[in-house]
Amino acid sequence: MATGSNKNAAAAQTPELSSFLYLPLIAGWLVPGAGHFLLGKWKRGALLAISIVCMYALGLAMHGKLYTSAQDILDMLGMAGDLGNGLLFLVGRVLGLGSDPVQITTADYGTKFIVVAGLLNIIAAVDAHNLRTGRKS
Amino acid sequence: MFHPSHFTAVFLFALFASTVFGITQRDTPPRMLRYGVYCFVLFVGAAVVLSWIMFLIAR
Predict the structure, then answer these.
(1) Domain boundaries along the sequence of chain A
(2) pLDDT tens, A109-128?
(3) What is the mean pLDDT of residues A26-33?
(4) Which of A37, A66, A88, A102 has its CA 20 to 30 A from that of A59?
């Protein structure tokens, strides 16, 4: 049975790089893997960062679309997924990437790669938060 | 510019998604590895099986 004292003990074992509880969550969202890096989980963070950044970059390389507006429900869902990429999404928008209309099959794959990279990044950021709070060891 | 085949796209998708699932859904490295491999096999296996089913239906 997981007690409150066990959770507190696990939380106490994490590096005290910051007293702000949500910093790993926010950092992990903005930069893939950063939440785990802050907690000293270097290998996990590196694997997460490589996976998410590669997926996002491959999506753009396939001429996937970055959602820029939410006019119907599917666009809203796509936009929510894209926003999960954090600063990667912002950099892509600033550089004008992913603005071409989808005309070939691989571009549709690319759009899905970008959305899923954002969703995976959110999962990774929540995992970093769970590590920070001691919910996960 | 990158134009992968459907199988290459499935393979890459499964590889990256399984890596994240393995790390985030299990606690210890051996269990992470096992779960990651399990997810990868399910991703790719499901795509191959469904592809064959669609191929046979279309004939």
Answers:
(1) 19-133
(2) 999 999 999 999 999 999 99
(3) 96
(4) A37
Q: Among A47, A104, A106, whose Cβ lies nearest the Cβ of B19?
A: A47
Chain B CB contacts of A120 below 8 Å: 16-17, 20
Element (H, E) at B46: helix B29-58
The residue of B20, B27, B37, B43 whose CB has the most chain A CBs within 10 angstroms, and thus the best one to mutate to test that interface, is B20
Q: Give residue B46's Cα distance to chain centre.
A: 8
CA distances from A58 to A45, A67, A93, A95, B3 (A): 20, 16, 16, 16, 10
pTM above the 0.95 mark? Answer: no
